[in-house]
Every structure is written in structure tokens, then in C-alpha cells.
Hints:
Subunit structure: Heterotrimer of A, B and C subunits.
Distance between the termini: 27 Å
Family: Belongs to the GatC family.
Strand content: under 5%
Shape: flat
EC number: 6.3.5.-
Number of helices: 3
Structural class: mainly alpha
Keywords: ATP-binding, Ligase, Nucleotide-binding, Protein biosynthesis
Strand order of the largest sheet: 1-2
Helix content: 25-40%
Largest sheet: 2 strands, antiparallel
Amino acid sequence: MSVDAATVRKIAQLARIAVTDAEVPHLQGELNAMLAFVEQLSEVNVEGVEPMTSVTPMAMKKRQDVVTEGDIADDIVKNAPMTENNFFLVPKVVE
């Protein structure tokens, strides 16, 4: 996979990063190098290797699934600037 100049500009726009035309070739090379490294990783034989979620073995602490105080939705949303039907209202952030 190779990244072209138009893709670099699109990524910069999506990330809201100002990129000049002079910077595009350098970033294109950097992104292509990263993708080449990821392609190398796909060649590694991982058959029989257990997936890891941490470098040290860990177990999640579990709690009893019991009913606690409920019906406090009004208390939860009372400090929110905008709510509707006990849901938080937030400004639209996706174009």
C-alpha cells in the first residue's frame, strides 16, 4: 500500500493539522515507511502465539452483579448544561 500526496492532505485535514505543500513529500515518505513496516509485521509467523492484552498477566477484579440504588437519573444529569429525557446533550462534533 502506498500513500499519495492527496491522501496525505486528506489525513492532515481529518487530523486538523496544517500542512504546507513543501511538507507533503516528507510526510508522504514517513507514512509510506510506516506502512511498509506494518506490512513487514504481517509476514511474521504468529501461529500458536497467544494474544496478549498486557505484558504482565492480569486478571480483572470482578464485583458482584447486584442491584444498587437506582432511579437517580435526575441526580446524575442535574449539573449538565443541556439534557433531554435524562440524556446528556452535546454539540455535534462530526462533520
